[in-house]
């Protein structure tokens, strides 16, 4: 599930999964994080489905009319599809090696677009516990309208209108007299239920009973008699349109199985393996390539797995270091010897323990098959952040056996803080904890500046807070002080066309009252070298001299 995740965490989830739920806020709409999530899913060949969340806020906070909410939702879906279409066009032009291939007019493959009538889009309110797809409402209103539900699934979304007199679906709104069917038969009912449940009235209990009968749900009287009107609403909606049912139905129908996904994903995840398999059909790489592309689950197939992250987990009363692992082929068994392909120090196999990841806990298991995600123990000495595991190794194989490609982190660690312990005698404990955190988290960087400060670099403020919490509670367990975040900014000067091949730029303010002209000239080499070689005390003297000079002037 891809939301406002840290860049490294998002990459890890994309590598381990074959499908994703992209959640877009109906209030905020498409933002920068949405672009990043979709681009990462496209890069990793992960098939996404769209969840439009917080539809309830369109009713309760923005107080939109159903037709206005429909237009807003249409705009969001169009923007998401534009992002997907742009990435597809980019790939088409990059793959055009000859330069004379004509691009087809209709490059938007329908299976890549988000379309509510196709079922890969659901509308949800996570806080109220409900969600639905077009298919759900097509089934609910098909008997009322006397129209086949398969026809309704195609016509319930889009510019289709229901003519009440002729009792048929038309594409003309009759000069604005008719509203789209999605507004008429879906949004209006939602708006009516929300207003009836959240508005005080003399016959409130009768209205609630009427809603329950209309939705044909069984709600306990204790929940209906609650004084909290929002609680009453949630009790009805989660029974009428369960969030879990709608989400699971979309996942099962539209997201690929491991057998289907690995056929096209492995070309990106393991390009070197494919090249070696084509050049040397009888090599070890070719055998493993055939196993992972076909997702073999037999015990005779070679086991190939990928460690996307190392993390600490509480097992029993001890904390142990586990690898977040996806099995791509074969049957991975407990205590089976596995070779770490990325280990340059040792070619000896490692006996691995297996665990199923149950939320915050890990339970030991005897085996797991291709397509599964599990926790792997016993690799702390050989795996640094990520690694590829294989059950086969041939020292006489001259072809070689490369691992899967490394994670393509979308966000570099740029938010830096300096850490220092309250007790100087505990500084070495903090340093060991920071090094361990650096080894485990792909999005963390740790280094020591020339001034002696120990710098922790993370991908963002949320990522930084999580790393500091891990240092305090797990890796270091000492008290330390944190400096203000330091973000490095790199600037340049460009003209109106976006070119930096110029020495001057002229811009105007929005009201055209002020014109700014900036001229840039190269800094003298000796001055640049002097600044680079200066320490903090020299720069402080220059700053104090400048302040004194400015005050005297």
Describe this structure in words.
The strands form 6 sheets. The chain has a 6-stranded antiparallel β-barrel with strand order 7-8-14-11-10-15. Strands 16, 17, 18, 19 and 20 form a 5-stranded antiparallel sheet that branches. The protein is globular. Helices cover 40% and strands 21% of the residues. β21 and β22 (515-519) form a beta hairpin. α2 crosses α4, α7 packs antiparallel against α10 and α15 (427-440) crosses α16 (461-475). It is built from 18 helices and 22 strands. The chain has 553 residues and is an alpha+beta fold. It has helices spanning 7-16, 32-43, 55-60, 66-95, 134-145, 149-155, 181-198, 204-215, 221-224, 229-240, 243-254, 258-269, 271-279, 284-293, 427-440, 461-475, 525-533, 536-552; strands spanning 19-25, 47-53, 121-125, 130-132, 161-163, 168-170, 304-315, 318-329, 331-333, 336-340, 350-358, 361-364, 367-369, 373-377, 387-390, 415-421, 445-448, 454-458, 480-482, 486-487, 504-508, 515-519.
